[in-house]
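anyone seen this seq b4? input:
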Amino acid sequence: MPVSDRFLQLLGHQLQQFTDCSAVRSLVVYVTHQGEEGRPTLMPVGQWPSGGRSLPAVGGDSRLRVPAEERRWLPLRDQQLLLGALQVETDGGVWPDPLRERLQAVALCLTEALRFDLEQQRLQRRLELQEEQVRLLVHQLRNPLTALRTFGQLLLRRLDPDSDNRTLVEGLLAEERQLNRYVDAISDLVQPEVLIAAAPQPQPLLLPPLLSGPEGQPLAEPLAPLLQRAAATASLQGRPWQGPAELPHWRGDSGAVAEILANLLENAFRYSPQGAAVGLHIARQPDGALALTVWDGGPAIAAEEREAIFRKGVRGRAGQPLPGTGLGLALARDLARELGGALELRMPPWEIDPALPAEGNAFRLSLPPGRPEPTATP
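predicted toks r here
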């Protein structure tokens, strides 16, 4: 059937209203169907009265297309595209104005409903195709990730316990685990039951469940591989890196916090000029709140851009020649607010701590006090 059940229900209600009109003998609704040779054919999808009679399709050479005194056609047209037609059979003669207006109103209603119905079907087919392609890509991604994990584990076994390269290999394995989390999250997004389970949420989830939580996770766990990645990136780019002296003792939605910091660190390494220092500063507030600041020693962001860069799709002038989507800061600020915290741009970094550079940019993430440490069971 070229139309949905919902459209057929609407069609039935629209045609049923003519039961009190003795001048109308029958109504038939057709939709346009492209035949095998590309010739459009009108396929019947509904009629009144139902009667059980079999209705033939109406081709280009059908005599039914020819208007007659007792049979007229009202096109269901979306601009230049003929979606279908409403065939009206009456006792003949001139239609009274009330009948003509009622039939035109029904034709208009069916046109809009048919247009939305066909568009919904087109989008559904496109969504199904995209989901199939995503499943295929996820399946293919798992193969090289598995190979990376295997090679990394083999390489780690061949290194001496005190080798300086163990940290690099452990960092590679940590990144492979993080990539697997992203692949799992993408795989879950195309599962219908996951989307249905998330539907009652009053706000859309900013991160898939696999990338946020679990609640109460120590921040040090996802933060350690992030710092390893940052140190390796700084070494590769030949720039100074200043990490925190120790990892913070904070519990909460550490997965979301790690996503925020990952976006901020990526921006710092991508947009600050070559040779500029990058760092992460961590400070505990007197009330137990936590402040994590990703800073760089590059030129200050222009005043007119300092709030605009937090909007989705907006990028500063310095980032225009570089690849990017302009989503990182918007996502980071939304996540920070969802955590009960805030993300703001401060400059220069020296304002946050006198030990930081007197020039540059600092993105400070403020978090509320974390969850208490779990009590040990006897």
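The first strand starts at residue 24 and ends at 34. Confidence is low (pLDDT under 50) at residues 196-204. kinda curious what u guys think
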